[in-house]
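Reopening this one. Same input as before:
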Amino acid sequence: MTEIDLLQQIGFNKYEAEAYYALLSHGPLTGYEVGKYSHVPLSRSYEILERLLEKGLVLVQPGEPPRYSAQEPQLVFHRIRSTMETTLNTLATSLASLAPTERASEFWVVRGRQHILTQIKAMIAKAHLTLELVLPTDCDLMENLAQAHERGCRIFHPTTTAQDEQSANVVLLVCNGHEALMGIMSPPSSCQAVVSSNVALL
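Same output, byte for byte:
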């Protein structure tokens, strides 16, 4: 994933990311030079730079033509992080008040290795009584499990003998005796796991 892709993930659009990256790479530039050193169309370069200026992401040196300089990344990221944390805290408070959907006896599918790992980490974070789990050897959850252990959670993680390739990708997790996850961790993009509190599954 390129720097341009990462900038887009934190709120820049493509042309904003291209322009900001060009300014960081080449120093202060005019709109024409930004278009020359990036994929920003020349016809839109000053528009994009003025938008970055309004957002506090660049500085301008008045002149004919004006020149623009990127704000220091640490300053930019600190402000974005602060804004994002405020937004997330507000959302967490407001959404927590919504009535939870009853889904205890139903079965729900999580698809994709990264999403399954996120679900596993969330379940481990909720564990306060017991965790029973079988994990593939390449799942690095030692820190998460250590935190659960520090909370007083009892962890049952049986050692396994030699496994074939398919069984080595199996993940099984029971959290506090009332929520379970079971699935396969390969192939990464299309693997699936089922999450449920169904009594029969438990």
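So the earlier flakiness isn't reproducible anymore. For the record, Strands lie at 58-61, 67-70, 107-111, 130-134, 154-156, 170-175, 179-184, 192-196.
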